[in-house]
Amino acid sequence: MSEALINRLVEFAESGNQQKIVLNGSSHQGWVMEISEEALLISSGFAEKTGQEQWMSFADLSTAELYYWDNQNDQWVEFKL
């Protein structure tokens, strides 16, 4: 994995109030919690009891659509890796 990819994923994690990843027709909306050497961890839900955490491999992210919530314009903005 390249350092450039990690830097872009950190930028994605720090963009907007929330992040959304659409992969194979499933949408995962929440907050990026961790970036490892092989994957990204996104946490969704509003409380520990209802929230879910999911690791997404970098290979999966290469085919996913990434978005972040732009508070200033109140809309999802696409993020390109």
- Give the domain tally: 1
Low-confidence residue ranges: none
How are strands sequenced across the largest beta sheet?
4-3-2-1-5-6
Global Rg: 12 Å
CATH first level: which class? Answer: Mainly Beta
Going by helix content, strand content and strand pairing, the class is alpha+beta
Q: Give the rounded overall mean pLDDT.
A: 91
- Biggest sheet overview: 6 strands, antiparallel
What's the CATH architecture name?
A: Roll
**Alpha-carbon distance between the termini?**
13 Å
Order of helices and strands, N to C? Answer: HEEEEHEE
What is the helix fraction of residues, given as a range? 10-25%
Short structural description:
By secondary structure, this protein is α+β, with helices and mostly antiparallel strands. The chain has helices at residues 3-14, 58-61; strands at 19-23, 26-35, 39-44, 52-57, 65-70, 75-79. The chain has a single domain (3-79), classed as SH3 type barrels (Roll).
